[in-house]
Design goal:
heterodimer; A: mainly beta; B: mainly beta; seven-stranded mixed β-sheet; four-stranded antiparallel β-sheet; 11 strands
């Protein structure tokens, strides 16, 4: 079945450091790939997405490129801020008649001033 | 602010009891899906409803059931609660049936259920 494996946390960085959170997936066909962010006490928010191979999703300085050859969708940001502290989830969705998302376990990011 | 509200925010039940969790979607959102997020895990898909009909289900037993109402509210019911049902339950709504690649999911903040 479908699965998503992402980098174990927690990840602790200083402000302005470079961030990478690794994500790899297993799925048949050509899934869409997503990064969601969960701030404390809040629901999930879509951060970025890519729907086909070599697409790059970007938002708020975060980027991720859909790499079919390595089945990866790593999240990167060049300079993190304290406000980026949250849990980040990689997810995939196969095309079909419903909106089932398969999530990774999440990576807790803490950014210190 | 996603426009999706869930109630209650926290709930404590004992093993064997039944529970109903509620979700209010944005007006016009015809699809609602429910996810279970155990501590330290990613959310797992329970099921999805489109225009009051179930149109997708994850690997959850029949004691997990749902309802969707014409006023864009919905319920998740769990019978015969087990200790492992303790989790954050998230609902998410979207405009369509999930066929469109550009459809966006809007998540609520969740209901934290503890089963003792």
């Amino acid at each position: 079945g479908d699965s998503v494996t992402q980098m174990e946390g927690p990840v602790t960085l200083s402000e302005e450091a470079f961030l990478t959170i690794n994500c790899t997936y297993t799925a048949t066909g050509y899934p869409s790939l997503f990064w969601y962010v969960q701030y404390p006490g809040e629901g999930l928010q879509l951060l970025l997405k890519a729907t086909k191979a070599d697409d790059k999703g970007s938002n708020k300085g975060f980027e991720a490129t859909y790499r079919k050859e390595t089945t990866s969708f790593h999240l990167e940001k060049g300079s993190v801020q304290v406000s980026d502290s949250a849990v980040y989830f990689c997810a995939l969705r196969r095309g079909g008649s419903n909106y089932k998302l398969t999530f990774g376990k999440g990576t807790l990011l803490t950014v210190n001033p | 602010e996603t426009g999706v509200t869930q109630s209650p925010t926290h709930l404590i039940k004992t093993r064997g009891q039944q529970v109903t969790l509620r979700c209010s979607s944005q007006s016009g959102h015809n699809t609602v899906s429910w996810y279970q997020q155990a501590l330290g895990q990613g959310p797992q898909f329970i099921f999805q409803y489109y225009r009051e009909e179930e149109n997708g289900r994850g690997n959850f037993p029949p004691r997990f059931s749902g309802l969707q109402f014409p006023n864009y509210s919905s319920e998740l019911n769990v019978n015969a609660l087990e200790l492992d049902d303790s989790a954050l339950y998230l609902c998410a709504s979207s405009l369509g049936a999930g066929r469109g690649e550009d459809e966006k999911l809007f998540f609520g903040s969740g209901t934290q259920l503890s089963v003792l």
